[in-house]
Amino acid sequence: MRVESLRERGPAAALGPALRQMRAPQIHVHVDLDVHDPALAPANEFAPPDGLTPVEMQDCVRAIAAERPIRSATIAAYDPAVDPRGLALEAGLQLIELLATVASAR
Fold it and tell me: 81: helix, coil or strand?
């Protein structure tokens, strides 16, 4: 899925149809932090420009959790040498907190 589509449709509308087609009753969420726009949260040297904002990524997690219980998660692709201000680290920590919250809510 393209970032533009996600932004135009919103996370719930963009992700919902695929999530509803899944047969699994619960889900594992894997997030490479380089999905974030490197101007906002530089996770590693491979992150392409114009990625998601941290809030957009959090909204995606909420949309996923609304469709399926999240039972496990992975946060990956972080290089602290590329993130001297800790922006991607903070985005990752916020995601971990959100994932823990939505996982325990169901």
Answer: helix
Predicted TM-score (pTM) of this structure: 0.93
The C-alpha atoms of residue 1 and residue 4 are separated, in whole angstroms, by 8
Q: 């997690």: which residue's tokens?
A: 61
What ranges in 1-106 are assigned the alpha helix state H? 3-9, 11-21, 54-67, 87-105
Pair type for strands 70-76 and 27-32? parallel
State how far the alpha carbon of 78 is from the alpha carbons of 49, 60, 85, 102, in Å: 16, 19, 13, 23
CB of 101 closer than 8 Å to CB of 93:
no
DSSP state of 31: E
Work out the end-to-end distance of the chain between its first and last CA atoms, rounded to an integer number of angstroms.
27
> Residues 11, 19, 88, 72: is their CA dihedral positive or negative?
positive
Residue found by looking up tokens 């996982």 in the block: 103
Average pLDDT over residues 1-23: 92
